[in-house]
Amino acid sequence: MTDDDAAAHQAVERARQLARSPGYRKRRRKAPQEPGGVAAGPGLGNAGSGARPSARDPQPVGAVADAIIHVRGWEEPLEVAGVVGRWREIVGDEVAEHAAIERFEDGHLVVRASSTAWATQVKLLQGELRRRIAAVVGADVVREITVLGPAGPSWKHGLRSVRGRGPRDTYG
Hints:
Elements lengths: L2 H18 L40 H12 L2 H11 L1 H5 L1 H6 E7 L2 E6 L2 H9 L1 H12 L6 E5 L24
Parallel strand pairs: 2-3
Antiparallel strand pairs: 1-2
């Protein structure tokens, strides 16, 4: 055994004795945890690309997109866009011809129907609408649905209109 081997052997023995001593508490360094929940390999710090998964490995596009959506706070706008953009798919062609989304804010969906008959029909279909919306874009996206009939004519014209009930002899 050479002097270098003997010195190495003595150093290993001292380390073993120190580890066995009752006052010694072995401290483990945790591998840095990445936001995606994948740690870099041991001794690699943030470098990764070892035999174990690391942050430098290729990530699925869906996971990256979900992380961006969550960090930017785009969950609600995407849910709203899902309902508005897929309205015809959710309600069907016939109902979509006569009922359109007027606004959708904070889980409150306001639908405007083309006639009072269609407004009544859509009101009767609210339970089915909620079920279909939940199936297509997720539960708890729409918490309340308000169905409005057609908008009546406005008698307000111009900057200087008179307050009050408006003309009374027009229809009758």
